[in-house]
């Protein structure tokens, strides 16, 4: 486990503590330019005075059950693995997420994180009808817009996407918060403590461009898909500041 945190505050002040469960390995590009995905997430979500730590979940590194109470919230990242897979580390992650849910800790799931949260809570995930790569406009539901009204979230919310899996069926008692033309469940919430987002609010355009090149090199997408994805980056800007407000407000219990 590694970490880093902001400074400030008096000696008696209780500092909020968060953990990123990193479900992917850092690419050389992200390590070189951003210092790794952990720093990308802290850049999106972190605030002065907080403590942020990272567990490399894809390597089998997870917080022990007795350590869960020490955290105010968790972030589950994207991954190259399938959320419907049965790798040992995925099974261990599912067990941990059920424990975290039972303690009603705040959890924000991104892409794979969104899907694995759904699975842990009793939903179903699987392959989508093809890849969704590029900037996709998602549409928050009326109930979501009402919940998020203080954040001034627009009714059309572009976000960077890069996935070929999706949530097929929500867990019992979960609520769809947003949809897109390609994906019926772009966001969901479960109670007031769990939220899943299929897109990547943390991604920059540059991160996605390098990912597109890697997918092409591995023959995972065709040239026509890559060209369409790059065209979407030119045509529309992701609403990064709106997504930042949304994610931070949820994770910090300010909704």
Average pLDDT level: 93
What percentage of the residues does DSSP assign to strands (E)?
25-35%
Q: Which percent range fits the helix content?
A: 25-40%
Number of strands: 10
Describe the fold and architecture.
The radius of gyration is 17 Å and the shape is globular. The protein starts with a strand and ends with a helix. The mean pLDDT is 93. The chain has a ten-stranded mixed β-sheet, sandwiched between helices. It has helices spanning 28-34, 37-45, 88-102, 112-120, 142-147, 205-217, 223-235, 240-251, and strands at residues 2-5, 17-22, 51-56, 73-76, 106-110, 124-140, 157-169, 175-179, 187-190, 194-197. The longest helix has 15 residues, at 88-102. Helix 3 crosses helix 4 (112-120) and helix 6 (205-217) packs antiparallel against helix 7. Strand 9 (187-190) and strand 10 form a beta hairpin. With 255 residues, it is α/β, with parallel strands linked by helices. InterPro entries: ChyE-like (IPR044992), Class_I_gatase-like (IPR029062), GATASE (IPR017926). It is found in: Cytoplasm, Cytosol. Residues 66-205 form the Glutamine amidotransferase domain.
């Amino acid at each position: 486990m590694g970490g880093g945190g902001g400074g400030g505050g008096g000696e008696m002040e209780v500092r909020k503590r968060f953990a990123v469960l990193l479900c992917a390995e850092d690419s050389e590009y992200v390590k070189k330019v951003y210092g790794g995905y952990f720093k990308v997430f802290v850049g999106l979500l972190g605030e002065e005075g907080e403590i942020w730590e990272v567990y490399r979940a894809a390597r089998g590194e997870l917080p022990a059950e007795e350590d869960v109470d020490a955290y105010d919230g968790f972030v589950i990242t994207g991954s190259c693995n399938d959320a419907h897979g049965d790798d040992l580390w995925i099974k261990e992650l599912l067990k941990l997420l059920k424990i975290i849910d039972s303690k009603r800790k705040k959890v924000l799931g991104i892409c794979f994180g969104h899907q694995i949260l759904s699975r842990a809570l009793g939903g179903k995930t699987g392959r989508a009808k093809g890849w969704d790569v590029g900037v996709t406009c998602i549409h928050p539901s009326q109930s979501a817009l009402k919940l998020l009204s203080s954040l001034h979230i627009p009714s059309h919310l572009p976000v960077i996407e890069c996935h070929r899996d999706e949530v097929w069926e929500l867990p019992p008692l979960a609520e769809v918060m947003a949809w897109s033309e390609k994906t019926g469940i772009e966001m969901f919430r479960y109670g007031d403590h769990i939220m899943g987002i299929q897109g990547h609010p943390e991604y920059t355009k540059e991160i996605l461009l390098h990912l597109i090149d890697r997918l092409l090199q591995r023959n995972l997408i065709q040239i026509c898909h890559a060209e369409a994805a790059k065209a979407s980056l030119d045509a529309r800007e992701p609403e990064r500041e709106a997504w930042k407000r949304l994610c931070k407000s949820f994770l910090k219990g300010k909704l």
